[in-house]
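Section 4.2 – Deliverable D4.2 (structural model, holo form)

The reporting period included a commitment to supply a predicted holo structure for the target in complex with iron/sulfur cluster. Inputs used:
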Amino acid sequence: MDLFSNIEQEEESRKNKLGHADIEYVKSVGILTQAKGFMESYDYTLNPYSGCSFGCNYCYAAFFARSTEQKDNWGKWVKVKDNALQLLIKWRKKPLIDKTIYISSVTDPYQPIEKELELTRSILNELVNYHKPRLVIQTRSPLITRDIDLLTKFDVVQVNMTVTTDSEDVRKAFEPICPSNKSRLKAIQEVTASGIQTCITMTPLLPLQNPNEFVKELLNTGVKKFIVQPFHPEKGKFVASTRELAIEQMKKMNWNESKYNEAVEVFRKELPWLGEGKQGFAPI
Ligand code: SF4
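Output (structure tokens):
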């Protein structure tokens, strides 16, 4: 059997469905996007996938989907940027050593399909061997621990783990497909213990059971850096995106601005470093 038959066979055996999500393999025109708006303090954002099978019901990224159908079905489709690595290899001529890159702004680089495809892993491997940029990786998946071996090779890297609440009921109401809060805290503890700079992003902060107990859980991970941002029910620039389902859930849970402010007061007092909103996301 020749090499091309092998590749064709491999491509045919790839999954077109994973759990509830349709998986499509696409050729992208580029892999690095000039960062702007909320992410403007970075040079580039890098999204190995478009769409996200975690499908959080407040996800702002849904509003960047190309069609109404994609927006309406957010969480049920993923497009794999099949040529992401090849596109990145072209950047070897212009190394990204002094650049700041944020992975990822409109998808989760460690969503379930990544476990099989190792696309994000291949990108990290390329970046560490040919570029060594300043890197921030944002995820809510414990799968990040798989890549600790690569992450420790970067000179400047930060892993951001999103943890939005201390309540599994709240997590299930807003992020039913996502890994549990405990598994995320355990994962970021492991990343931190490996010596990598870490941060827990409570973005958006969802209703809490007990802010004081939550702070203890956060500190137990060993993480020293935290970012908080409110859930925005109103129409606005960045937040125009908050989806109806999430707004309904929030109303039911009786979480409001004053409860958010009370929780943030506890964070300001107890956490060693707290970034708030856009400024908190600035590169390391
Ligand atoms: S994990 Fe992130 S990108 Fe994916 S649906 Fe949730 S908020 Fe959106």
